User: Fold this.
Amino acid sequence: MSKVLDKATSHFRTRISGEMKRVHVPEWECDIYFKPTLTLREQGKLIELASQGKQVEALVESLVVKARNQDGTKMFTMPDKMILLNEVDPAVIIRVVGEINEANGEEADLEQVEKN
Assistant:
């Protein structure tokens, strides 16, 4: 591996293993923890969904990928995505993803998902 690639991967490992942030969700009586970055593969899936006009699905995918328990394990799995899409208050999902994105310095609305 080249020196630059070593430094690039080291930088990313530092970012991805850093301290988690959290958002409190009173409706669900829990805190959702999240890391300040995603892998390029995870980001690519969100971009792909948005470019296909599936902004709502991209929003839920974002929650599934980002949301963590306090111990760092994923809070949701991909099979949970259908439940989140069909059986959970959309206003809460939009607010939570917005708060996560805002805490990460991203725009907090569906338009941003579409742009990405």
